[in-house]
Amino acid sequence: MELMGYELEPDFAIVDGYYVLNDWLDTDHEANTMVGDEEQQRKNSSQAKPNVRFHYRLLATEHASKAADLLPRSSQAFAAVLCEASRWILVREPEYAKPLYQRYLREGSYVSWGKQFGQQCPAPDFQSAEKRAWAEHFNVLKHPSGKGILIYFCLLTLTVGLVWLFLKRKRRETPA
Q1: Which of 12, 27, 151, 159 has its CA 20 to 30 A from that of 176?
Q2: pTM (predicted TM-score)
């Protein structure tokens, strides 16, 4: 709340996010007429998106989902990042947490703690995820469809061609 919470609605950081504000912020109260039209327009133009209480948690889940895009789908870190993002919003905004869980089911690998997804989340193991990412890159070369062999052959051909061009150019430059 300190970083991204709005001072007034929807977060009410000015009063540390307390819910009971009826006495303090009655919309029909005379004190609200003290705010001028220009200030009211400025406030309305900078509303939270989405305009829900604790909206910054939803923004954080979007960032976590983008971070998960950078992790191997088969890694524990992928599942743990989505789990933690879901935990931030599961109680207050379950309709936003559901797609995170569905994404884990669709793209992620089985994890033993999956039954508590969004409730109890382990810390992501980024070191194992990094090792897994390297392994997955090299597994492409072993792929039975032949795509790996084709990629390997193309890289080999490109390397040989570049060496040949370099040597040909070098021969031209050396005096006879």
Answers
A1: 159
A2: 0.65
Residue 70 near residue 128, CB atoms below 8 Å:
no
Q: How far apart are CA 35 and CA 40, in angstroms?
A: 7
Q: Tell me the pLDDT of the chain (176 aa) as tens digits.
A: 778 888 777 888 888 877 655 555 555 555 455 667 887 788 788 888 878 888 888 989 999 999 999 999 989 999 999 999 999 999 989 999 999 999 999 999 899 998 999 999 999 999 988 888 877 766 655 665 656 667 777 888 999 999 998 888 888 777 75
Which CB contacts under 8 angstroms, 24+ apart, belong to 159-168? none
Show me where the domains of the chain are located.
1-53, 55-127, 143-176
Rounded to whole angstroms, how far apart are CA atoms 103 and 142?
27
Q: Which two tokens stand for residue 49?
A: 């998106």
Contact 5, 17 (CB under 8 A): yes
Q: Quick one: CA dihedral 169, 174, 175, 176, positive or negative? A: negative
